[in-house]
Amino acid sequence: MKFYKTYFILFLILFAIEACIAYFLKSGFIRHTFGDFLVVIMLYCFIKSFIDIKPITTGLIVLCIAFIVEFLQLTSFLELMSLQDNKVTKIVFGSTFHVSDLLAYTLGILTTLIIEKKLNND
């Protein structure tokens, strides 16, 4: 296993942006859609910081995680885990299912894969 500093720095930058979005913005496009777009890129960078796997594999893993979390919002998962009153958990898992979130996740991963392809082919 090798540590990839560039991906980790990108992860930290995206994490800081996500934290600012969560703290300062309570509604709107940036909070509800752009944040979802960025979160999958952030998770992608986190995984790539520690594991050297193909971009498509990483992208599919992250997309599956994002979709699972989104579909869990259709259930009473947080209540079953007694986490419904935990603010951090509600921010991470969300509380309402939106198809638009699935689209934002997909576009985030597609954007990441396109950038990876361009950077690795040039």
Explain what the structure shows:
The structure is a single chain. This protein has one domain. Helix content is 77%, strand content 0%. It has 6 helices and no strands. The protein has helices at residues 5-24, 29-50, 55-72, 77-80, 87-93, 99-121. Helix 2 packs across helix 3 (55-72) and helix 3 (55-72) packs antiparallel against helix 6 (99-121). This is DUF2809 domain-containing protein. Pfam families: DUF2809.
Features:
6 helices; mainly alpha; globular; 122 residues
Q: What is the string of helix and strand elements? A: HHHHHH
What is the share of helical residues? over 70%
Number of domains: 1
Q: Mean pLDDT, as a whole number?
A: 93
Low-confidence stretches: none
Tell me the β content. Answer: under 5%
Number of strands: 0
How is the biggest beta sheet arranged? Answer: none
Our measurement of the CA-to-CA distance between the termini, rounded to an integer number of angstroms, reads 26 Å
Helical segment tally?
6
The backbone outline, from C-alpha atoms, is globular
Strand-pairing-aware structural class: mainly alpha
Radius of gyration, rounded? 15 Å
Protein name: DUF2809 domain-containing protein
Transmembrane segments: 7-24, 30-47, 59-77, 97-115
Pfam families: DUF2809
InterPro entries: DUF2809 (IPR021257)
Give a short summary of the structure.
With 122 residues, the chain is mainly α. 77% of the residues lie in helices and 0% in strands.
